[in-house]
């Protein structure tokens, strides 16, 4: 009995223990399930919240798409391809800057566009973006060698200089061919018999002389080329020795320096040197880890470099350019020749001064008669001023698409490919830039595409006047023959003179660069009367200390874009001197008190987070955020977009449509 009772009590105890365990297990399960449920709920809420945000973004995105004409029907027209955006990179491939000769020294970010609305293009140009064909870029002025500044002019504030007046007066007089013909007729009548006799007797002799001169010139050119090649080789050998002595060896802290520096022949009239080399920049590029900058390299080794050159070769005078960091070589015999020339010129001047007093009165009277005769030949109605007192220019005819000045006709036409225009462009490249011209396809891609949505704006002042926006050619025709072409972008508020080229043989006689700018400024002034917002003439790009761009800064009352504040500031005489004489490492042009434009102020902003939360693309008829892309592609796209956002500002960035 007792054993039976014990067994029953034990069974009851076991059952109680089992029950407690089951209860505990159940409690644990419920707690875990509750935690899991809470976790699932929170994840669902988070994903729901993200989906809701995404739906809101998609709605906003669709609204933005609808604001752009034909966006849905032809979605690729306005979309910026995210694959064609790049971060700040040097121009790579070990290429030299065409302005200063430095290697791998251009840093910028950019993108390609198929088509942009005029307002967006205008905003980009006001942020310092430049265009070449479909490609838009903005320079990083803190890292690049030659600073590229955006420059513009309010045409109502333009003040024409005395030199510009004189230049255009002469140009317009030549264009009014009646004056030229009448003067030449009188000269022909006076000298007809003498000239005809002289020409017959001397024509044979002239032909023989010309042939002799041509052969002599060819021989002289060959000799000059051989001399230059020898001098370049001599300088390069000298620099190789210099590199071996000063910069090769582990104890000097340099890596092995490759001999890929170059020696260039200095071109142009104003020569500080006969030859120059970029050897110092190459040494710096190959040893960036050991050196902070080219300036530090020069500061440390300048005296040693110059001492070595003076000892090893006495035929040249040597110096280091303070801004461009190039080693300059001047032939001493050339310096002596220049001194002799100056002395001869002084002697000639003194002789001329003496001879002036010995001139007889009859000779002076003859000269005065000839001048008066020429003046009388010009009719009184033709003795007009082609530049008015207020600086405005006189046109014979004017309309939005046509200008006439005597024999010169200027027409605004579509930028379609024309073989004659392409040939002028090739001749211009060879003669003026001394470079190989663009291929036909490159020329078409750069000059013959329509990047701006063409629009016709009707004037509220005069219903007959229309402003044509888009990309055009301004064709300059003299007696039906094209002599020059201006590649221009016309926007609702500005006229952008992208590129101007002309027949090289007309360079000296017509000064087409200055005169075309004066004509185009006058075009904007006249159109502004009918379109009040059409105010600015834009020279597009200005690079200080570049000879071919110096004339741009001579047009008074201009504004230049400060790269740091993204605000336009007046281009004063003091600022010009600063840009020419001492281009600072800090490219800020605005005063210290001037704040950065709010649209470009990213100091209190996490750009990466901003892009993850706000950026959206339209890809293959789907709306995607950065986190929807393949993980491997996200970092690079994020870097490129962050660079572009900082370059163009939040307003324009958010108004563009990205995808592919």
From TrEMBL:
GO molecular function: arginyl-tRNA--protein transferase activity
Pfam families: ATE_C, ATE_N
Coiled coil in keyword set: yes
Coiled-coil portions: 329-366
Top enzyme class: transferase
EC number(s) given by UniProt: 2.3.2.8
Keywords on record: Acyltransferase, Coiled coil, Transferase
Protein family (similarity comment): Belongs to the R-transferase family.
Listed name of the protein: arginyltransferase
Source organism of this protein record: Tetrahymena thermophila (strain SB210)
């Amino acid at each position: 009995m007792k054993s039976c009772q014990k067994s029953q009590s034990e069974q009851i105890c076991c059952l109680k223990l089992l029950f407690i365990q089951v209860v505990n297990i159940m409690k644990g399960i419920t707690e875990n399930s509750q935690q899991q449920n809470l976790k699932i709920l929170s994840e669902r809420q988070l994903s729901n919240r993200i989906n809701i945000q995404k739906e809101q973004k998609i709605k906003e995105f669709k609204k933005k798409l609808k604001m752009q004409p034909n966006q849905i029907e032809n979605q690729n027209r306005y979309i910026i391809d995210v694959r064609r955006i790049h971060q700040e990179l040097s121009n790579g491939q070990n290429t030299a800057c065409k302005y200063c000769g430095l290697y791998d020294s251009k840093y910028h970010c950019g993108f390609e566009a198929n088509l942009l609305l005029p307002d967006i293009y205008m905003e980009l140009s006001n942020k310092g973006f430049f265009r070449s064909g479909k490609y838009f870029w903005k320079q990083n002025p803190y890292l690049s060698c030659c600073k590229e500044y955006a420059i513009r002019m309010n045409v109502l504030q333009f003040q024409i200089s005395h030199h510009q007046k004189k230049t255009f007066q002469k140009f317009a007089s030549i264009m009014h061919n009646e004056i030229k013909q009448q003067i030449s007729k009188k000269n022909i009548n006076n000298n007809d018999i003498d000239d005809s006799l002289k020409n017959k007797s001397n024509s044979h002799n002239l032909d023989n002389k010309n042939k002799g001169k041509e052969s002599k010139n060819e021989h002289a050119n060959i000799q000059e080329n051989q001399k230059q090649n020898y001098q370049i080789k001599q300088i390069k050998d000298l620099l190789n020795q210099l590199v071996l002595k000063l910069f090769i060896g582990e104890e000097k802290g340099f890596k092995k320096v490759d001999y890929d520096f170059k020696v260039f022949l200095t071109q142009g009239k104003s020569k500080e040197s006969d030859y120059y080399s970029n050897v110092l920049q190459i040494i710096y590029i190959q040893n960036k880890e050991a050196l902070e900058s080219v300036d530090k390299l020069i500061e440390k080794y300048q005296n040693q470099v110059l001492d070595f050159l003076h000892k090893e070769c006495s035929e040249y005078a040597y110096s280091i350019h303070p801004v461009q960091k190039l080693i300059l070589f001047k032939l001493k015999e050339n310096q002596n020749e220049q001194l002799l020339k100056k002395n001869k010129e002084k002697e000639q001047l003194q002789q001329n001064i003496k001879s002036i007093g010995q001139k007889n009165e009859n000779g002076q009277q003859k000269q005065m008669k000839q001048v008066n005769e020429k003046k009388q030949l010009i009719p009184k109605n033709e003795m007009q001023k082609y530049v008015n007192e207020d600086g405005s220019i006189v046109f014979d005819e004017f309309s939005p698409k046509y200008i006439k000045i005597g024999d010169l006709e200027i027409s605004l036409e579509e930028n379609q490919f024309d073989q004659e225009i392409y040939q002028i462009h090739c001749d211009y490249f060879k003669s003026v830039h001394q470079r190989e011209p663009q291929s036909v396809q490159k020329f078409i891609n750069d000059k013959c595409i329509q990047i701006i949505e063409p629009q016709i704006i009707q004037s509220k002042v005069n219903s007959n006047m229309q402003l044509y926006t888009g990309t055009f050619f301004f064709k300059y025709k003299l007696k039906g023959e094209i002599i020059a072409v201006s590649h221009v972008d016309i926007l609702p508020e500005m006229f952008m003179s992208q590129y101007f080229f002309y027949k090289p043989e007309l360079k000296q006689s017509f000064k087409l660069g200055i005169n075309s700018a004066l004509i185009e400024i006058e075009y904007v002034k006249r159109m502004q009367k009918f379109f009040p917002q059409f105010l600015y003439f834009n020279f597009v790009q200005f690079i200080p200390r570049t000879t071919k761009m110096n004339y741009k800064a001579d047009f008074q009352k201009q504004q230049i874009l400060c790269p740091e504040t993204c605000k336009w500031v007046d281009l004063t005489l003091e600022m010009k001197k600063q840009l020419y004489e001492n281009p600072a490492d800090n490219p800020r042009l605005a005063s210290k008190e001037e704040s950065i434009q709010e649209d470009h102020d990213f100091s209190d902003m996490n750009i990466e987070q901003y892009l993850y939360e706000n950026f959206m693309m339209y890809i293959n008829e789907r709306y995607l955020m950065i986190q929807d892309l393949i993980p491997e592609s996200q970092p690079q796209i994020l870097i490129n977009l962050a660079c572009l956002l900082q370059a163009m500002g939040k307003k324009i960035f958010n108004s563009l449509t990205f995808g592919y």
